[in-house]
Specification:
Helix content is 28%, strand content 20%. A two-stranded antiparallel sheet has the order 1-2. β1 and β2 form a beta hairpin. The longest helix is centred in the middle third of the chain and has 15 residues.
């Protein structure tokens, strides 16, 4: 049985940690923090940036704070509306 998972992506000196999940029956035991910590440090070993970026859900940011990270900036994501198809 897998209690927790995380996806770590790294390229061009930047690492991202995504899709951190913990089985519902296993929550509140530090598993999310453990897999997040492992993913962040695996990214650092690849010479990637050691500063994770948080976006909703806010629970992810809480995990990073518990691991000793602090907010150093914020950013927004913007999208250009799709064009209507040409007739």
């Amino acid at each position: 049985m897998t209690a927790g998972t995380a996806l770590r992506w790294a390229a061009h000196g930047i690492a991202g940690v995504y899709a951190v999940t913990t089985d519902a029956a296993q929550r509140r035991q530090g598993i999310g923090a453990t897999v997040t910590h492992a993913a962040v440090h695996a990214g650092r070993e690849l010479s990637a940036c050691g500063s994770p970026r948080c976006r909703p859900p806010a629970t992810a940011c809480l995990v990073y704070r518990r691991l000793g990270f602090s907010v150093v900036g914020e950013y927004g994501l913007f999208a250009v509306p799709a064009r209507e198809p040409a007739e």
